[in-house]
Amino acid sequence: MKRVVLVLAVTGMIHGGCVTTAGFVKHQDVSVPVLLGAMAADLVVTSIAASQIQQYSYGGSLATGLALTAVDVAVGCLTGACSALKL
């Protein structure tokens, strides 16, 4: 199990986050379902990776996942991933 988590964490670090990647790949064509899926994937991967730190509680792992997802969404929005949210 730890190998799977390590692979997911390294993959997440390499591509810089799902929302940011969606912004780079699709530019202004990111749909709302893709954006929400990317946010969910970021949250899951970072929370699982953080849970492997021995001193972290479930709450700490979730808080770390939320914080890193928020950073990724902010960077992703700068790259155009949040264009679907404009009215």
Brief overview, please?
It is built from four helices and no strands. With 87 residues, the protein is mostly helical.
Structure description:
Helices cover 74% and strands 0% of the residues. It has 87 residues and is an all-alpha fold. The chain is elongated. The relative contact order is 0.22.
Give a topology summary.
Layout: H1 2-15, H2 18-26, H3 32-51, H4 58-78
Order of helices and strands: HHHH
Biggest sheet details: none
**What level of helicity do the residues show?**
over 70%
Number of distinct beta strands: 0
- What is the rounded Rg? 13 Å
Regarding quaternary structure, what we see is single chain
| pLDDT averaged over residues | 78
Number of helices: 4
Strand content: under 5%
Unreliable parts:
none
Terminal CA distance: 43 Å
> Which term fits the overall shape?
elongated
What tags apply to this protein structure?
mainly alpha, 0% strand, 87 residues, single chain, 4 helices
